[in-house]
Amino acid sequence: MLTDSQRERIVVVLVSPRNPLNIGAVARAMANFGFSRLSVVAPYEPHWREARSAVGAPQLLANAHQAASLSEAVRDCTLVMGTGTLTHRKAEQPVVRLNELASMVDRELHSGGQIAVVFGPEKHGLTREDLSYCHVLVEIPTDAQQPSMNLGQAAAVCLYEMATRGGTSIAGSGTAEDRIDAAAKVSNSPKQAPTSGNLDILAGLIEEVMVAAEYSPRMMQEANRHDLRLILRRMDLNAVDSRRALGLFRRILRRLHIPKS
Amino acid sequence: MLTDSQRERIVVVLVSPRNPLNIGAVARAMANFGFSRLSVVAPYEPHWREARSAVGAPQLLANAHQAASLSEAVRDCTLVMGTGTLTHRKAEQPVVRLNELASMVDRELHSGGQIAVVFGPEKHGLTREDLSYCHVLVEIPTDAQQPSMNLGQAAAVCLYEMATRGGTSIAGSGTAEDRIDAAAKVSNSPKQAPTSGNLDILAGLIEEVMVAAEYSPRMMQEANRHDLRLILRRMDLNAVDSRRALGLFRRILRRLHIPKS
Fold this sequence. Notes:
homodimer, alpha/beta, Alpha/beta knot, 7-stranded parallel β-sheet, 11 helices
């Protein structure tokens, strides 16, 4: 089982949910499995906070964060996990089966990170663009005949899996408290991953360099931006690597802007 | 993973569901995880089969069985599993944690049985009376602060657990097909459990004997009936034991009815 303080480092993110009843259902499942941090990105209905389906979780809905973009919602997270099925898509990032979710969450919590678990809109799930902000795609193993899950049910299954099977894989010989202390120590170490926001800053800077160096034509910028997000998340940089890369590209950019003598 | 033929031996039973949307949501989750047999006991709304929430599962709803009582719905099952939390109740039967569900299902499938997974109505879950028809109570490990799950979400979590973690614990060295063959062989052996319907017949006969023997006053009959159902399910009789007991009590009853000379 995850501890309360571990659950507080996990945020559930809903991208453009259409039906407030589904938002409420997600909030209810979060309360059922002891999670409290919800972030809703660009919701379709303005009055989603009043969803009556949030049985036992009205406060959780009231405290939910509303973000304008997925990038903003996951800014402070060091591991962003998209959810979905692979029936109608080919993943551009590593795929994690749902039964491996808990051990991945454990490793990230152990190294002091913050985690986002991201669910897409009801109709089509996360887009390719949304997924470019995700380090991994968590595959929910549904039947090929009927792969598409209801949003509230998909969230319930993922939260159940994390809550009940998380907090055990980094076992060691010590007590739970020893392990929490160890995790806290690690969190000050340079092994920690950069946040999604740090990667966005790095990506923006690299893009500026690409423009300044006349690396790619304007019509390729959008595609390059997409690939860059994916590559940076796939590289598994630690926070120090990420700061170094930032310093290097800043230097390159400055040099590129100096007129040639 | 459970095979298709294993899933066909598992029936999902909803006792007195009030909201057709929840029935539809259960049907959808069943389709997501490859289950097809639904039985609805005394539904509140007559038009439950038209629930629009059964996305991708209208045929499953159309084929669902409607039963007048839980006893009738589980008649052919050899293992009846009630679901719920233990926050507001003390179980009268063995409690199985949700993460142990798959291995229990595997054992029953292996010995050729039929399984029911039973969900109670939205408001209060399964009653003590409903649970007296269950061999075990499957405990969904929800937070003590907010234990009550939405019906569709509770079903999704249980079905996910069975579908993805079932079919593996009876591993052995053979292939999946060897194991299915072995299970089929066992199903003809006397180790098979009696069906819930067989136990109901035995319970009815024992009650007749209790009356004929003037064992208990009339006002105790309801309580005795309840306890008898529980005891018979706790005894873990095999089909042969159950037939023997039936024969014995028939003989006793006949003797009791012969006027003393």
